[in-house]
Specification:
Number of strands: 8
Distance between the termini: 59 Å
Number of domains: 2
Shape: globular
Largest sheet: 8 strands, mixed
Number of helices: 12
Oligomer: single chain
Helix content: 25-40%
Strand order of the largest sheet: 1-2-3-4-5-6-8-7
């Protein structure tokens, strides 16, 4: 299993996007014969993985770690990069500017595909999550319990972000760990209520009427809206009375702000130059227009900046 799934993942990341679903189907057929989860060690041996989700494993998550919070985060291949859809509500612009190839994964860009360990692992994890959710949920349960216990022994807080580079439903896992704080960013349509231990920061996509309706619903629920902005607009944007710096850490479930705009400076990704011109990334006036459309522009003093 290990060699076969590994080789399929290499083929997948080397192939054009339109050829990846066929490779993913082969992976699904292979995974159908995989035994159910037995032990964590057996799982890692079977698929050649060091872990499924990891703790404090990105620059932004490390900012959270400095605040005495250990965060377990799951990074998958994002969007449809593994030939299966992991972000059903993503827009074209969001896919273009996706951070799946930024940060530490960016260091692998240009390498021989067979040596892109992070990309290969994320594809394999994506297939396990999609085709063998029973295995994925069991592994996540093991890692969450283990890492929560480790954090508590060290006197640290613990949180989980299971959609590091995906936007899928993790309600089963969230319900199974009522004492754990979970949080996510999402573009999916919002439910009417959220579990007590689950926080969402709703993600800006564009100015369409359907999206604006969801932004207004998010505000009515007391949720913040994540808004990517150009670097030269960042400081002015966070100075607005209905906005705050969401790059300070990744602890969205601990934000004191409620019903505001969580401003994120656009990060470098492979399609940065073309994607940054899209409506998905806002300038200062775009932030103010969004605020006006969803009712935040009525806050006193918002036009003073």
């Amino acid at each position: 299993m290990k060699k076969e799934i590994h080789n399929l993942a290499i083929r997948c990341i080397a192939a054009p996007l339109n050829e990846r679903p066929a490779i993913a189907k082969q992976a699904g057929d292979l995974l159908a014969s995989a035994p159910a989860f037995s032990t964590y060690a057996a799982f890692k041996r079977q698929f050649g993985l060091s872990y499924f989700a990891s703790v404090n494993s990105s620059a932004k998550i490390e900012k959270s770690a400095r605040k005495e919070v250990d965060t377990l985060i799951l990074y998958l291949a994002a969007s449809n990069n593994a030939g299966v859809e992991l972000c059903k509500s993503a827009t074209r612009e969001c896919r273009a500017l996706c951070l799946v190839c930024s940060g530490r994964a960016k260091m692998e860009n240009g390498r021989d595909h067979s040596k892109r360990r992070i990309a290969i692992a994320r594809v394999i994890k994506s297939w396990i999550m999609h085709f063998r959710e029973d295995i994925a949920r069991a592994v996540l349960a093991h890692e969450i319990a283990s890492k929560q216990a480790s954090a508590l022994r060290k006197g640290r807080s613990f949180a989980c972000r299971l959609n590091g580079t995906s936007d899928i439903d993790h309600s089963e896992t969230i319900a199974a760990f009522p004492s754990v704080e979970f949080y996510d960013y999402t573009k999916n349509n919002l439910p009417d209520t959220l579990p007590r231990n689950y926080s969402i920061c709703y993600s800006f996509a564009n100015f369409s009427s359907g999206r604006v309706k969801q932004y207004r619903k998010a505000l009515a629920m007391g949720l913040n809206i994540a808004v990517p902005v150009h670097a030269d607009a960042f400081e002015r944007a966070i100075s607005l009375p209905y906005a705050f710096d969401a790059d300070r850490d990744d602890l969205r479930h601990l934000d004191k702000e409620s019903g505001q705009l969580a401003i994120l400076k656009i990060k470098r990704s492979p399609n940065y130059e073309s994607g940054k011109q899209s409506e998905f990334v806002l300038g200062f006036e775009g932030v103010r227009e969004l605020a006006r459309l969803i009712g935040l522009g009525n806050l006193q003093g918002n036009l003073a900046a």
